[in-house]
Amino acid sequence: MDKKQLSKAIKALAKIYKVRAETGDPFEILVHGILSTRTKDTTTFPAQKRLLGKADSPYKMMHMKTSDIEKLIYPVGFYKTKSKLLKEACSVLIEKFHGKVPRNKKDLISIPGVGNKVAALVLVWAFGLPYIPVDTHVNRIAQRLGAVKPKEKPEKTEEILETMLPKNLRLITNHILVQFGRDTCKPIAPKCYRCPIYSYCEYDKKGYYRNKLISK
Fold first, then answer.
1. 26-125, what's its fold?
2. Cis omega before residue 75 (within 30°)?
3. If you ran DSSP here, which 8-state letter would residue 57 be given?
4. Which of 1, 12, 63, 77 is the most exposed place for a label (fewest CB within 10 A)?
5. Can you tell me the distance from the alpha carbon of 193 to that of 196, in angstroms, rounded to the nearest whole number?
């Protein structure tokens, strides 16, 4: 898949998944990113709301007991570890960045609990910068489309996609591919027979889903 094909595929999906590039509070998005690792949004968002309802700034969260944070964010995955990471992240924000979430990847990655995906997520969602957070959905779909090699690491996938797509599409790519991955391009038994970008895909080489569509 070349740059032009990938752009066409993302634009085709954008007509279906109406995504607007909007920004939100940087600290809230940072907290969401730390909580969301290996946790579904249906669990992350309520936990995030409970926590930020008690402490909506690094300074307030720093003064909370770790055990209280644990209770508020349960049942997110690894909630005990994440409660400690959140306190450590707040400490770094206060000591190194005057309580403000930085807007560059190098500084973001220096914060406990923040890896490449979370950093990109903050840059896009909080600051409107043209990055592509690569989670399991984005990485899987990029591989199936042939934009990256099979079993490519997320960090490399992000780098490749960001060189292939223009800035305006980078802002919405994560949102679009996550939704597309949830309802059509699933990890197991993807619904290729109803895929709107099937013609761009390299996944169904054997034609199983194509034959299934014809048989219907």
1. Endonuclease III; domain 1 (1.10.340)
2. yes
3. S
4. 63
5. 9
